[in-house]
Write a sequence for this structure.
């Protein structure tokens, strides 16, 4: 009976390591632009927000608007992301950026994407958790914190 308990404990530890540590390190397949040049849609879970979601959707957040007199929006965004910390830019161009944010306590990874619109000062945004279903508004709060930093730079 003791060996069954040991086996169960080992299986539980392996499962936890895979679920919490290994799997979140693998980037999700729904990253990058669609064939039509849009950000990927949010899944049907509350742990994703996007400015390209329907405005009536709970996943909707407004696009980020930059002051063009302060420089190229993506350059401003790079500066703000560096100031915020706890993120790594994975893909970086003058039109599209993908950054991975890491939570301080558990090390959860969230993917945040930015797409510059043709107007030259608006940036579409998508922020999604890699694992779980509920994020307790962490992605929405992150985008709103970004928006606040952008507005503070314009003052």
């Amino acid at each position: 009976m003791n060996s069954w308990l040991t086996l169960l404990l080992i299986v539980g530890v392996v499962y936890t390591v895979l679920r919490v540590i290994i799997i979140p390190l693998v980037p999700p397949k729904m990253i990058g632009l669609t064939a039509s040049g849009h950000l990927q849609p949010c899944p049907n879970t509350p742990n994703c927000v996007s400015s390209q979601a329907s405005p009536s959707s709970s996943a909707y957040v407004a696009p980020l608007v930059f002051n063009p007199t302060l420089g190229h929006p993506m350059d401003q965004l790079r500066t703000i992301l560096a100031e915020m910390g706890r993120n790594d830019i994975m893909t970086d161009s003058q039109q599209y950026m993908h950054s991975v944010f890491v939570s301080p306590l558990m090390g959860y990874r969230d993917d945040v994407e930015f797409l510059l619109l043709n107007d030259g000062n608006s940036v579409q945004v998508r922020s999604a958790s890699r694992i779980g279903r509920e994020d307790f508004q962490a992605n929405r709060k992150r985008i709103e914190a970004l928006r606040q930093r952008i507005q503070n730079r314009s003052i």
